[in-house]
Specification:
Blueprint lengths: L16 E4 L3 H12 L4 E4 L3 H9 L4 E2 L8 E4 L3 H14 L4 E4 L5 H9 L7 E6 L20 E5 L6 H13 L3 E4 L2 H24 L6 H4 L4 H7 L6 H10 L1 H23 L6 H18 L11 E8 L4 H11 L6 E6 L5 E8 L4 H10 L3 E5 L2
Length: about 375
């Protein structure tokens, strides 16, 4: 009998691929490429980090006789330019890219040094986790995520295709942007949100324990990324300071206006000012792309789930029987309660069918927008 079991998908990138930096992003790329059968050579200034990444299967240790077709620099922002310069000189046949979260500052440094950047293409996968290091690496963190590729007038078509092929092989969506466009975009969508989350979470340090017991899913959502590593973020924010300051200044003006309105909420126009602030936030959320990049909105149905094994599985099984597709899921556990709240997001047309079907199957519905 012929074996019809599908094998691994054919990779667009041809190895060997050299990855410098065996932390979260470097090791995650290594895992994904290794799974595609590509020869991945890892290098890191920390022997312990390198051994750990190799032991976990992200690739093999680099050798002096390696001749890579692609070099991926995955090191902290403050040494990114140095490593790019070194790798371009050490591997004259390779295309070199980096995955740093700031694109303009390393490019400025390299240009100031007179480095030939013909074979260099900056890139940045918009992926990550709150935890770092080789232990936290996963091959699937790039799937469905944007991967910015920064080309310029010197970029050769074949080199650009290779970096975009890397993104596609890892399941990401390549997006071409200039370094300036990229840095302004991440200042708004990544760097300032990190600061806002950290500032808000910092208010919890001296808060009474009783206040923190009231924390629900909303405050957890808005402070989730506050657990990020300070050492890395000092580098990122310092390298992208000007665009970040622009957004912070505008945000500070907004906060000042709201605070002024709330100091005298009965003053003429004060309540309208607060309402306009909330409404503008509604409009901003509506602009965020949803599932598959669509702007389609979903409705939440909150279900009470007993805190015992198998209940989530039963809930999803019942949703499948009702023929409802879950677009998103959030879980919340109330302190001291023996149940949790599962918020499932579904298309608006399926809300009534979902509520009726789950109720018939014994589920308690906590809330719905229907």
């Amino acid at each position: 009998m012929t074996d019809t079991t599908p094998g691994p998908l054919a990779a667009r990138v041809q190895g060997p691929v050299r990855i410098v930096g065996a932390g979260l992003l470097g090791s995650s790329i290594g895992h994904a490429l290794t799974a595609l059968g590509i020869d991945v050579a890892l290098d890191d200034t920390s022997p312990a980090q390198l051994r750990l990444a190799v032991d976990y299967g992200a690739g093999r240790a680099a050798r002096d006789d390696d001749d890579p077709t692609l070099v991926i620099v995955a090191v902290p922002p403050d040494v990114t330019a140095d490593v790019i310069e070194r790798e371009l000189a050490a591997h004259p046949r390779a295309v070199v890219t980096d995955v740093a979260s700031v694109k303009l500052e390393p490019l400025r440094q390299l240009r100031a040094r007179g480095v030939d950047l013909t074979r260099y293409i900056g890139s940045h996968p918009l992926a990550g986790r709150e935890r770092g290091g080789a232990i936290a690496a996963r091959a699937d963190i790039f799937i469905g995520r944007p991967w910015v590729v920064c080309r310029d007038g010197e970029t050769r078509a074949g080199d650009l295709a290779l970096v975009e092929a890397l993104a596609l092989d890892l399941g990401a969506t390549p997006i071409e942007m200039s370094p300036e466009e990229h840095d302004r975009a991440v200042a708004l969508t990544s760097h300032v949100p990190q600061l806002v989350a950290s500032l808000l979470a910092g208010r919890f340090v001296d808060a009474p324990d009783g206040s923190l017991r009231l924390a629900g899913q909303g405050v957890r959502d808005t402070t989730r990324i506050a657990a990020s590593a300070p050492e890395l973020w000092v580098q990122i924010l310092g390298a992208n300071a000007a665009p970040v300051v622009d957004v912070l200044d505008a945000l500070a003006a907004d906060l000042t206006a709201v605070a002024a309105a709330l100091r005298d909420p009965d003053a003429p126009g004060a309540r309208r000012g607060v309402a306009d602030t909330i409404r503008r936030g509604n409009d901003g959320v509506e602009r965020l792309p949803g599932k598959h990049g669509q702007n389609r909105r979903f409705e939440p149905v909150v279900v009470m789930v007993d805190d015992r094994p198998g209940q989530l599985g039963r809930l999803f099984g019942d949703l499948g029987d009702i023929d409802v597709n879950v677009e998103d899921l959030r879980l919340e556990h109330s302190p001291g309660a023996q149940f949790g709240l599962a918020e499932v997001s579904i298309v608006p047309a399926a809300v009534r069918r979902t509520v009726d079907g789950l109720t018939e199957r014994g589920w308690k519905i906590a809330s719905t927008n229907d």
